[in-house]
Design goal:
The chain has 21 helices and no strands. It has helices at about 1-25, 35-40, 50-65, 70-75, 80-85, 95-105, 110-115, 120-130, 135-150, 160-175, 180-190, 195-200, 205-215, 220-230, 235-245, 250-255, 260-275, 280-290, 290-300, 305-320, 325-330. By secondary structure, it is mainly alpha-helical.
């Protein structure tokens, strides 16, 4: 039985390569189609595709699917998604898994294909690829998981493993690859909408890692990270972790009125939660970090009334531990404004 399945998969790969190559012929102007196919598929149609030959066949299929819309259509029209997906399983060689994921991430997946790929064994292999593959494979694995869960109703337990969360955190911490940071934070943002994930992520030190990362993020990634931190601030353990992280208050104060109104709103929400948890300790630290002056800027800005009101409430909370004269000096007001 195992040999029969192996042979069927081999034939599926060869068939897909043939179909993709046929669709590519019209785009190869001025070239000899037969020669191009012989170059593209050396010996693949004349013998069984196993071992490294299978990996090579999948690699070539991945390359043409990534580069040519006609190849994508050929794979989809010939049932290629189901056939390629069948190569993913608990006993799949990682070399095969790398190439299969690289193919699938470039295809439009229907509901049936998505449901098939959301099986625990297939998700587990994708997580392995995320943790053990090259940077390209890590990014592709993250993209594929994001494609599978976006806007879908499914069992969140399949994607709430500590291994997945740890792999994503490692990806976003790798500053050498900005594209990986964006994709990793985007998937984390989606995953944090599931309560089971929120409780798990605190155990792997997500808050200190994200706080360390904030100063180096671009605006889009910054919004993703702040969204995640704001969600964590609604958990009892999350707000304690934010309070105990020495970079929380300085980072949040720095971001007020610096990037966008959305970032200001998220940072302000985190500051309110921390300062309300420990007013005497945290409010004083925040004021020393320049919070009072930043809150006055928000109040005088064109931000939403709700944001201004919340800023005024936090400003009042921060003023309780100071005399009027000292607090005015903390606000950095000029004598004329005083």
């Amino acid at each position: 039985m195992a040999k029969h399945i192996d042979d069927s998969c081999s034939w599926a790969v060869r068939s897909l390569l043939c179909s993709a190559a046929v669709f590519l012929w019209p785009s190869m102007e001025g070239q000899n189609p037969l020669k191009d196919v012989s170059d593209l598929l050396p010996n693949l149609l004349l013998k069984k595709v196993k071992g490294q030959s299978r990996v090579q066949a999948l690699r070539e299929l991945r390359q043409i699917v990534a580069e040519h819309a006609t190849a994508k259509k050929a794979v989809l029209d010939n049932g290629g998604v189901a056939l390629v997906s069948s190569l993913l399983g608990p006993f799949t060689m990682h070399a095969v898994g790398f190439e299969v994921i690289g193919i699938l991430v470039n295809l439009d997946l229907d509901l049936t294909s998505t449901a098939n790929l959301l099986q625990p064994a297939k998700i587990s292999l994708m997580v392995d690829m995320l943790n053990e593959g090259s940077i390209e494979t890590k990014i592709n694995s993250t993209k594929l998981i994001a494609m599978l869960i976006e806007g879908k109703d499914f069992d969140s337990e399949n994607v709430s493993s500590l291994s997945l969360l740890a792999g994503l955190l490692r990806l976003v911490k790798d500053k050498r690859h900005p594209n990986g940071i964006k994709i990793g934070l985007g998937l984390l943002k989606t995953l944090y909408s599931f309560e089971s994930v929120r409780n798990s992520v605190l155990s792997i030190g997500a808050i200190p890692h994200l706080m360390e990362l904030l100063p180096s993020l671009n605006n889009e990634c910054l919004e993703f990270a702040l969204y995640i931190l704001e969600i964590l601030s609604t958990l009892s353990d999350g707000i304690l972790a934010l309070k105990d992280c020495p970079k929380t208050i300085p980072n949040m104060v720095r971001l007020l009125m610096k990037v966008s109104e959305k970032c200001t709103r998220l940072a302000l929400s985190i500051l309110c939660a921390v300062c309300q948890l420990a007013p005497e300790e945290c409010a004083a630290v925040a004021v020393e970090a320049g919070l009072a002056a930043k809150l006055l800027l928000v109040i005088q800005s064109g931000c939403s009334p709700e944001l201004k009101q919340r800023s005024a409430q936090l400003l009042k909370l921060c003023s309780l531990n100071y005399t009027a004269t000292i607090f005015i000096s903390k606000c950095k007001l000029t004598k004329t404004i005083q």
